[in-house]
Amino acid sequence: MKLCKILATDWEAMFGTPNSPIAHDVVIIAQTPSCDAFLLLTNTLTPQLAEQATVPEGFDFTYCQQWGNSIDVPRIISDLRSNAYPPIANYVDAIVKDDAGQLQAYTDACLAVKAKYPKP
User: Fold this and answer.
1) Where exactly are the structural domains of the chain?
2) Measured between alpha carbons, how far is 8 from 42 in angstroms, rounded to an integer?
3) How far apart are CA 73 and CA 2, in angstroms?
4) What is the distance between the alpha carbons of residues 117 and 120, in angstroms, rounded to a whole number?
5) Rounded to two decimals, what is the model's pTM?
6) Following DSSP, what letter does each residue of 77-106 receive, concatenated?
7) What ranges in 34-85 are assigned the alpha helix state H?
8) φ, ψ of residue 20 in degrees (nearest 5)
9) Alpha helix ranges (H) inside the chain
10) Over the stretch 56-107, which tens digit does the pLDDT of each residue have?
11) pLDDT of residue 65
12) In whole angstroms, what is the distance from residue 86 CA to residue 107 CA?
């Protein structure tokens, strides 16, 4: 995933309005105190996004407050990945019931997470 910055002035062009939203697969992870710019993670660059090689100064980390103000992109991706996996109880239930369809659904869900959030 790429670390990108978007200015608040470009927000509507990127995400639309409440009445006409534009969907993008992004995770917003930080913002400036004045909310005039935001950092996000995405796999797809658009004209409104400026890819960042490093974390710029002046952003408050908002993705996971207990981590403090440091932004560690690999850790964020790892966290997103681990939180997106289906519950292990679904796997155990499929094994106990010997349900091949449920087991395949679990496997497919895990593979989808791996594709969406590849290891950095």
Assistant:
1) 2-83, 85-116
2) 17
3) 9
4) 8
5) 0.63
6) HHHHHHHHSPPHHHHHHHHHHT-HHHHHHH
7) 73-84
8) -145, 70
9) 11-15, 73-84, 88-97, 100-116
10) 888 877 766 555 555 667 777 888 888 899 999 999 999 999 999 999 999 9
11) 57
12) 9
Report the distance separating Cα 89 and Cα 69, nearest Å. Answer: 34
Cβ atoms of 80 and 63 closer than 8 Å: no
Residue type, 80: L
**Tokens 């639309």 map to which residue?**
16
Q: What contacts 24+ positions apart, CB below 8 Å, involve 31-36?
A: 31/59, 31/60, 31/62, 32/58, 32/59, 32/60, 33/58, 33/60, 35/8, 36/7, 36/8, 36/9
